[in-house]
Design a protein that fits this description.
This is Polyprenyl synthetase family protein. InterPro entries: Isoprenoid_synthase_dom_sf (IPR008949), Polyprenyl_synt (IPR000092). The chain is globular. The longest helix is centred in the middle third of the chain and has 28 residues. The protein has a two-stranded antiparallel sheet. Helix 3 packs across helix 7, helix 7 runs antiparallel to helix 8 and helix 8 runs antiparallel to helix 9. The protein is built from 17 helices and 2 strands. It has one domain: Farnesyl Diphosphate Synthase, CATH 1.10.600.10. With 322 residues, it is mostly helical.
Amino acid sequence: MEISVIRQPVVDDLQAVDRLILRRLESDVVLVNQIGHYIVSSGGKRLRPLAVLLGARACGYSEAKHIDMAAVVEFIHTATLLHDDVVDGSNLRRSRDTANAVWGNEASVLVGDFLYSRAFEMMVEVNNMRIMDVMSHATNRIAEGEVMQLLNCHDPDTTEDRYMEVIRRKTATLFEAGTRIGAVLANSPAPTEQAMALYGQSLGIAFQLVDDALDYNASDEQLGKNIGDDLAEGKPTLPIIRAIEIGTDEQRKLLRVAIESGGRENIDAVAAAIASTKSIDYTVELARKYAETAQASLTALPASAERAALAQLADFAVHRTY
């Protein structure tokens, strides 16, 4: 399923979001404008704002505040990318140099802070305390996930449960908050709001599982960043955690050393161990189960083009190659 087809029911809304993002990026500090425009305009799938828009429309929302909240979610996501790239020492994202590679770590962190604060300014303007509650808790939970991931780095004893808790917080939380907000804006009953939250959380988990699988079985050109970045940073993601769990003694020793030391020196041998243990298949199969959970939650909504697009979005999250 092409992402352009999934976007079709809300294509006008997406264009409105893009216009709003460009307008709200404006600052009288030149460097803020430069870095903000650089990273926001650098491509990306815009899946999080898309989920907000589709979720709101699928819940029957017919006004315009979902445009603001979709932009808020994209600003928060972009802020996390700026901070992540500094923490991880990344130099390539979306097939372009990262902002920290161009302007330095200090500027990237500070502009990330600007995007966070601009997002909260925009939330205040929406004037809905329930939305403020959802988004403030989500932002806090994302930060906790970042810290938990840092604690897992270079630790070959990281378990699947610890890894899953990181991606629930770090990635799935913003998807969950975005789709929940769609229901909140539409004044949906509590069961519908919970169903939309489950959809977003499950979608986010599926998305991150596939992202981590692609780090070992895509190309730099497909992925838009360096293959093996997770290994280079000493991040124990599910493909390598699973391979350590079921691999041979020799494979386990190789993989443990690779996580402890980081770097890409043994990427070929690591990839071979992951392939021979079918750890990519294991990861993608788990992603597929979460995508099915996301799709099943949509039965709480009436049939519509937007609901169908949300189901297709869950499929896209699993079957994409970038």
